[in-house]
From TrEMBL:
<dbReference type="Pfam" id="PF00300">
    <property type="entry name" value="His_Phos_1"/>
</dbReference>
<dbReference type="InterPro" id="IPR050275">
    <property type="entry name" value="PGM_Phosphatase"/>
</dbReference>
<dbReference type="InterPro" id="IPR013078">
    <property type="entry name" value="His_Pase_superF_clade-1"/>
</dbReference>
<dbReference type="InterPro" id="IPR001345">
    <property type="entry name" value="PG/BPGM_mutase_AS"/>
</dbReference>
<protein>
    <submittedName>
        <fullName>Histidine phosphatase family protein</fullName>
    </submittedName>
</protein>
<dbReference type="InterPro" id="IPR029033">
    <property type="entry name" value="His_PPase_superfam"/>
</dbReference>
<keyword id="KW-0413">Isomerase</keyword>
<keyword id="KW-0324">Glycolysis</keyword>
Length: 209
């Protein structure tokens, strides 16, 4: 079976480099164009189900992945973006000025330091693991997961944990990119076969952030 991990299309806060977290920021014009590109890129792929974050930017992207096909689009709260608490809506420059010590400590020791009012890395990893357990127990064919950059980085860590491809590094993907895994339900083996693919966006001039 194939598992496609897809990041939502671009938003205005992506351009402004604001931390979105669990704020419900919609796709902008470029994000909607990227979603249409995903419709074309995914239309020949025989998907059994699409699981998505319920946040509007991800849910709209998931709808584009389905296109006009009668594929179930299931919203899972586990797939919401990381909760950054009081930092949501702010830029790195603003945080360095207002909460610099904690922000620097979070970058240096994310397993120990959480944003005020936000999630710890352990909490994020736990819900990624719960999401994957729930999804794989229901997989009957090729499946897409639509979520967010931070969440998907942790989700991929869970998928590759214990495999030869688990290098401990964080895998960050671009807006509207497609990352592909091969999954063998009989053995539980999972293999990364295509990472952060953006070729379907090649005619758009601004898809990288």
């Amino acid at each position: 079976m194939k598992l496609y991990l897809i990041r939502h299309g671009q938003t205005d806060w992506n351009i402004e480099q604001r931390i979105q977290g669990q704020q419900d920021i919609p796709l902008n014009d470029t994000g909607r164009a990227q979603a249409r590109c995903l419709t074309q890129a995914m239309k020949e792929k025989k998907l059994d189900a699409i699981y998505t974050s319920p946040q509007i930017r991800a849910y709209a992207t998931a709808g584009a992945v389905a296109g006009n096909r009668p594929i179930p689009v299931v919203a899972l709260p586990w797939l919401m973006e990381i909760n950054y608490g009081d930092w949501e809506g702010k830029t790195a420059k603003e945080l360095l000025k207002k909460d610099g010590d904690r922000y620097k400590a979070w970058w240096d020791r994310p397993a120990e330091v959480a944003p005020p009012g936000g999630e710890t890395v352990a909490q994020v990893d736990a819900r990624c693991a719960a999401a994957w357990d729930w999804i794989r127990s229901r997989m009957k064919g090729d499946t897409a997961i639509v979520s967010h950059g931070g969440l998907l980085a942790h989700f991929m860590e869970q998928l590759l944990k214990g495999s030869g491809e688990d290098d401990g590094g964080e895998r960050v993907v671009h807006n509207a990119s497609i990352t592909t895994f091969e999954y063998q339900p009989e053995t539980g083996e999972i293999r990364l076969t295509g990472f952060d693919e953006c070729g379907h966006l090649r005619f758009l001039c601004n898809f990288t952030e």
